[in-house]
Amino acid sequence: MNICIIGAGYVGLCTGVGFASKGHKVVCMDIDQEKVDKINRGEPPIFEPGVEESLKSSLQSGNIKATSDLEQALRETDMCFISVPTPSRDDGSIELGHITSAAQNVGNVLKSIDGYYTVVVKSTVVPGITEGSVVPALEGGSGKKAGEGFGVCMNPEFLREGHALEDFLKPDRIVIGELDTRAGEAVQAAYSGFDAPVFRTNLKTAEMIKYAANSLLATKISFSNEIGNICKKLGIDAYDVMKGVGMDSRISERFLGAGCGFGGSCFPKDVAALGQKARELGVEPRLLDNVLETNKKQKSLMVAMLKGRLGSIEGRRIAVLGLSFNPDTDDIRESPAIDIIRQLKESGAEVAAYDPQAAGNMKALFSDIEYAETAKGALKGADACLIVTDWEEFKDLSGQDFSLMKGDVIIEGRKVLKPGNVKRFEGICW
Ligand SMILES: NC(=O)c1ccc[n+]([C@@H]2O[C@H](COP(=O)([O-])OP(=O)(O)OC[C@H]3O[C@@H](n4cnc5c(N)ncnc54)[C@H](O)[C@@H]3O)[C@@H](O)[C@H]2O)c1
C-alpha cells in the first residue's frame, strides 16, 4: 500500500520505517525541513535501536522517502497516519493545535483529490477528539463528508521508546477505531503482515483504550514505588518482593520496577489528560491524581537521600549517570533527571552528567553543567554518584571505576549495579 506518515518524530518515524520494512511504499511528511533532509540522508533525527539500519535499507529499496510537501505526500498515497504532538497544557488537558492544524491541512488537499482516502489518527487524543475536532477540520478543509469522500480511523500506538521499532513491528494487539467500515478494512489491510490480534471498535473506544492502558501501567509503577518506599524502611529489597508478586499470572512481572519515577512524553501527560477529562465530566480522578503525585515525590527522593548522606551538597561534585527517561533513547521529555539536576543546582551542587545518547538534548535545558564523554569522566573526583537511567553499559561499572570518585556515596534510582562488581551502594527502594 502507499502510506503517508504526517509527523516524523518518535512514533511517526518508527511507524514509517516499520511499514516500509513490511513492503509498503511510505512517504514521511514533516514540517521540519531539517528532519526531512536527515531522513532522506538515512540519518534518523532521533535515536532508537534498529531505526537507522532499517531506514537505510528502505531508502535503498525505494520504500521510504521524506518530504515537507503535504500535497505531494497525500497525492502519492491512499492513507495517512497523523502522528503529530499532543502536548500537555498547564491544566493537564491536551493541546490540540498541532493535530487540528494537520487535519485542516489534510482536508485542504483532500478537496482536490479524487476518490476515497483514509485518514488515521495515531497521535494520542482524549476520547471524542477524533470525532469532535479532527473530523470537522477534515470536513471543513475538504468540503467532503467523512465516511463518504474520505474515511477516518483512530489507531493508538503502544510502543515504548527505547524499543519503538521492535514494539511497532511486534505489537501485543492492534486497535483500530473506525468511523466507517471501509476505513477500518483499509487500516487492517495495512497491518496484514503483522502477527498480532486486531481489535476493531469505534473511535472513542480506541482513544480511551490508549489512556486506560497508559494509566494502568503508570499506576503499576507508582504502586511499586509506594511498596518500594515501605520496603526500604523495613530493610527489604523491593525487587525481590515484586519478583514474587509478578509471578502471579493475574498481575505479571512487568512495570513493577520501583525507582526514581516514570517520565517520558506519554505517562505523565496521558494520566494528567485523562484526569482532566474526568474532572470536566464531573468524575473525581482520585487514583489518577495520586499516581502523578506519588511519581512527583519519587523524583525528589534521590536528592533527599543524597543530602541525608552528605549533609550540605553546596559546592560538592555530584555525578549523574543517565539523563534520558528510559534506556536506549535520547528522549529526555519529563525525565526524572531533569528534576534531579534542577534540585542539585538549586542546592549549589556541581553536576557532572553522562548519558550515552541524551546529553545533546539535555544541554538545551541545562547549558551550565558539565557533560562528561564517559561514565568514568563524570565519576572522576565526584563526592557522590546518582544513577538515574538503567543503561546497559552502567551494569558493567566496577569498583575500580567508582574508585575514581573522591567520595563513596552511590545511590541507584534504577536497579542496575551488580553487587559482585561494586562493594557499597544503595538503592532508593532497596
Ligand atoms: N513517544 C512515544 O513513546 C509515544 C507512544 C505512543 C503514542 N505517542 C503519541 O504520538 C504522538 C506523537 O508523539 P511523538 O513522541 O512521536 O512526538 P514527536 O515530537 O517526537 O514528533 C512529532 C513530529 O510532528 C511534527 N509535526 C508537528 N506538527 C506537524 C504538522 N502540522 N504537520 C506535519 N508534521 C508536524 C514535528 O515536527 C515532529 O517531528 C503524540 O500524540 C504522542 O502522545 C507517543
Number of strands: 14
What fraction of the residues are assigned to beta strands by DSSP?
Answer: 5-15%
What's the overall geometry?
globular
Cofactors and ligands: nicotinamide-adenine-dinucleotide
Helix and strand run: EHEHHEHEHEHEHEHEHHHHEHEHEHEHEE
- Distance separating the two termini: 51 Å
Please state how the strands of the largest beta sheet are arranged side by side: 3-2-1-4-5-6-7-8
Q: How many H/I helical runs? A: 16
Oligomer, anyone? single chain
Class derived from helix and strand content: alpha/beta
Helix content: 40-55%
Radius of gyration computed on alpha carbons = 23 Å
**Spans of 5+ residues with little confidence (pLDDT < 50)?**
none
Mean pLDDT: 97
Major beta sheet, specifics? 8 strands, mixed
